[in-house]
Amino acid sequence: MKIVITKPDKNKLRKKRHARVRNRISGTAECPRLNVFRSNTHIYAQLIDDVAGVTLASASSNEESISGTKVEQATTVGKLIAERGAEKGLKAVVFDRGGYIYHGRVKALAEAARENGLEF
What is the pLDDT of residues 72-109, one digit of tens each? Predict the structure, then answer.
């Protein structure tokens, strides 16, 4: 008899956490959801109106003007998403960390968005 020990799939666990949180939070046109997605190389942020099912604004680190370390890129993306939200007249948002731990790149993006005018 062979015993196989498998490690839990991190992305699967993250998706379970995200689904649990998504049951509790939702974005509207006045107070959209600031969604964060983090890949190994890039970070993406979107302002989403869940009622209409549309993305109001987005920013990502794979835009040509963004460079630096991953944390610096996340800070720049946070600043960009706050500016693009302000252009649309959005101040208050609901932060959706996407099942990720509030640390590192996710924290840098959130703090930069707060410093540049988004309230959450």
Answer: 999 999 999 999 999 999 999 999 999 999 999 999 99
What is the C-alpha to C-alpha distance for residues 110 and 104, in angstroms, rounded to an integer? Answer: 10
**Structural domain containing residue 47:** 21-115
Instruction: Kindly write down the DSSP assignment for every residue of 27-71, as one continuous string.
Output: --SSS-EEEEEE-SS-EEEEEEETTTTEEEEEEETTSTT--SSHH
Q: What residues contact 31, with CB distance under 8 A and at least 6 apart?
A: 92, 93, 94
In contact, 105 and 43? CB cutoff 8 Å: yes
Asked if residue 47 belongs to a domain, the reply is yes
Number of domains in the chain: 1
Distance CA(71)–CA(96), nearest Å, equals 18
